[in-house]
Write a structure and sequence with these properties.
With 78 residues, this protein is an alpha+beta fold. It comes from Glycine soja (Wild soybean).
């Protein structure tokens, strides 16, 4: 996102860009990135966009792992 075009949002209003990336601040954020809005709502994994799907999947795996680890520590399993 260019520095000259900040998109400020106080609540999530996700849109799916034509590049396959979900823009959480809506149309304004997608416009700042120079991307057309493909649909309102979240992008779906494997939608043919240019977003790095393996990177998104890896991030999801890390998030799930951290949640599992957090609960394990909380309940004294580790």
């Amino acid at each position: 996102m260019p520095l000259s075009c900040p998109a400020k949002c106080f609540r999530a209003d996700p849109v799916c860009g034509a590049d396959g990336v979900t823009y959480w601040c809506g149309c304004a954020e997608a416009a700042c990135a120079g991307v057309e809005v493909a649909k309102f709502g979240f992008c779906e994994v494997g939608n043919g966009g240019s977003a790095p799907i393996p990177g998104q999947a890896l991030l999801l795996v890390h998030i799930v792992w951290l949640i599992v680890l957090g609960f394990s520590v909380l309940f004294g399993l580790f």
